[in-house]
Amino acid sequence: MSSFTNTRKYRCVYCGGFAEARDHIIPRSFICREGNSGFDDVNNIVAACGRCNSFKSNKIFDTIEEIKNYLFERYCNKYIKVLSMPDWSEKELSELEGALKKSISSYMRQKKALELRLSILEMPGLYYEE
């Protein structure tokens, strides 16, 4: 996993999205601060999507489950407005026009994608492998 030139090849170990980043399970900032080398050790790196990697930041966790639980909370808090938006049926959407229809359709797609991501984050013991 030394190269992420083909981002579609890897899945985020946390949410299953396409991985664009390498997440250091023990953050590089912590390892460097402690004076240890080897922060790019393959046992300390997993594939992660940009959002999960950014949300996790330089926090330290004991298990992958703890990371997933933390990320679940972060996604829920950040996207609370989208997640609390009511669902619209196809019939209701067909009655709308123009920018309003486009906006609501976009939010519905975003909500479905977030719900899928959250459902994967909630699954204990499910980790995407390379």
How would you summarize this macromolecular structure in one to three sentences?
The chain has 130 residues and is mainly alpha-helical. The protein has helices spanning 28-33, 50-56, 64-78, 80-83, 90-94, 98-122; strands at residues 21-24, 45-48. It has 6 helices and 2 strands.
Task: Give the terminus-to-terminus CA distance.
Answer: 8 Å
The percent of residues in helical segments reads 40-55%
Q: H/E series, N to C?
A: EHEHHHHH
Gyration radius (Cα, Å) is 18 Å
How many separate helices?
6
Strand order of the largest sheet: 1-2
Content of β-strand: 5-15%
Tally of domains: 2
What is the residue-averaged pLDDT? 85
**Structural classification:** mainly alpha
The gross shape turns out to be elongated
The stretches of 5 or more residues where confidence is low (pLDDT under 50) are none
User: Strand count, sense and closure of the main sheet?
Assistant: 2 strands, antiparallel
Let me know the number of strands: 2
